[in-house]
Amino acid sequence: LEEHDQQRIHHAELSAAPESRRYRLLFADDDPDAIELLRECFADTNLYEVEVAHDGPEAVDMALSLKPDLLLLDMLMPGLDGYAITERLRAEPAMKHVPILIITGFPNEETEAKGFQIGVTDFMRKPFALAQLRARVQMWLHRKDQPHAAGSILA
Fold first, then answer.
1. For residues 105 and 121, which has the higher predicted lDDT (pLDDT)?
2. Distances (CA, A) of 66 to 44, 63, 127
């Protein structure tokens, strides 16, 4: 996650949530610095409740018990990678339509195609701007809330 010469943009200034609903987000990453940036990016407690898993098995357990509105997974983590987590969660009826975004530092078309086939909703390639991540998360939350919206792959 990189900010480069960008100023950090506080969420209250960019709030694009369609309603005053509070969303539960589950982040899974074994890098404490990445988790801190993600927490900061989604720090608006009026909009988000942030939960954190530090490895793949914990991410699966927390997702099944917490039923988050969206998952943001690092591709490479101890125990299970992002694809293995996605496969396990997509096998559960309650998790079939929950957006799963994977962050990867090693993107390529072949592995991303495999990810889409197993149920990954979207990818974020490292490095990226936090404003871009926030916009994508908000878009998927909005589409989840309105699955009938034109163009939604969750419909």
1. 121
2. 19, 5, 29
